[in-house]
Amino acid sequence: MNYWDIFKKGIFEMNPIFRLALSLCPALAVTSTVFNALGMGLCVMVVITANNMVVSLVKNFVNPKVRVPVFITIIATIVTLIILILEAYFPSVYKELGLYLELVVVFAIILARAEVFAMKNGVIASAFDGLGMGAGFAVAMLFIGAFRELFGTGTILSGTSMALQVFPQSYNGPMIIILAPGAFMVIGLMIGMFNVIGEYQDKQAAKSKAASQLTGQRSEAV
Amino acid sequence: MAHDAHDDKNSSVFKITLNLAITCFISGIIIASAFAITEPVAAEQRVKAKNDAMKELVKEAETFKAIEGKEGWYAALKGGKVIAYVVPANSKGYGGNIEMLAAVTPEGKTMDFKVLKHNETPGLGDKMVEPKFRNQFANKDPKDLEVVKVPTDKNIQALTGATITSRAVTKGVKEAVEAVAAYSATQKK
């Protein structure tokens, strides 16, 4: 498996939110606007990549019996570093995401990738795995955030300099989309959509396989 | 007990403890050194953020002077005269404490307020920071700081779907205004 394949699988066939249904908590809590969703997605991408690299570097020194506490310590260290840096040099981002950043420590997807992938693979492969999974997470957050912000409040990217009023100011969206239950529905519908696409792709693959087998048999007959 | 020799050697309590202790020690050192570098910058940012917040509330002010005996209170000065007081205001909203700074004239009228920290519902309660709601507070007597649900010039119109937040903000600002009015009365004597 080359690095591109490792990167790609995190976005499509093993998308953390839409396919593995991991880390749904942030997907509910921080996706009411695109800005928050994307900020969180990028933070997770950085943490998961850094953590994968550190874990794959130190994997031979970690006693298997305490690997989970050690991983959590590593993740907590990385997250704390990011918080310190953001607070000092990017106060506006820190102000928006500060509340949620500490929760990144216990996101299931980060621990899962350390355990499943980084523990068994080299540094570069682990970095690509982290980047791919992080990108998949960020893209999923972006989709959910865009949908909820567009239909909930009628804007896109509010809170940034590129804020766009898509629907007129008088648009009063269904309140449930802004609240957590609405997020659940949006995620559910998007998971369903991903499954339909996945099934269609499987069918196409099966069809082309059958077709190639058929032509194979014909050529044998001839 | 069917442990093989290798497993026994690696899983002694001492080895496990040492492994985790070393990890924590290293991460402690890393965090401590990062903190030592970033903390002075962060402290500077906090002071700057506070000054910016006060400057935004009272635009004409030249300097801000801390008031002795009142924690977190500042007097906004212009040409040596007090033109406004900037005081912290607190109130319990829908999702916890709302921390604000309120600007009040020496006559005890509201000027403006700024939310420093809150945990209100995104998309509903957090609209309290938008001008449409915020501008209603300019130049109001404390007795007019009441939340109503119909459009109004005299009182404060509640945010759609966020009545609790609207009430909380109004209550916090009102308390701050009353405190300043009482303080300002003692200053004049």
Count of all domains of chain A? 1
Secondary-structure element pattern of chain A, one letter each: HHHHHHHEEHH
The average pLDDT value of chain B, as a whole number, equals 83
Number of helices of chain A: 9
Number of strands of chain B: 7
Largest protein interface? A-B, 31 and 26 residues
Estimate what percentage of residues of chain B fall within beta strands.
15-25%
Quick structural overview:
Chain A is mainly α. Chain A is built from 9 helices and 2 strands; from the N terminus they run αααααααββαα.
Description:
The complex is a heterodimer of chains A (222) and B (189). With 222 residues, chain A is an all-alpha fold. Chain A has one domain (3-209). Chain A is 73% helix and 2% strand. A two-stranded antiparallel ribbon of chain A has the order 1-2. In chain A, helix 3 (34-58) packs parallel to helix 6 and helix 4 crosses helix 6 (108-118). Chain B has 189 residues and is α+β, with helices and mostly antiparallel strands. Chain B has 2 domains: 5-48; 60-188, no CATH class. Chain B has helices spanning 5-10, 13-57, 131-134, 163-188, and strands at residues 63-66, 74-78, 81-92, 97-104, 110-117, 147-148, 156-157. In chain B, the strands form 2 sheets. Chain B has a 5-stranded antiparallel beta sheet. The longest helix of chain B is centred in the first third of the chain and has 45 residues, at 13-57. Chain B is elongated. The termini of chain B are far apart. In chain B, 28% of the residues are buried. Classes of the chains: A mainly alpha (222), B alpha+beta (189). At the A-B interface, helix 4 and helix 7 of A face helix 2 of B.
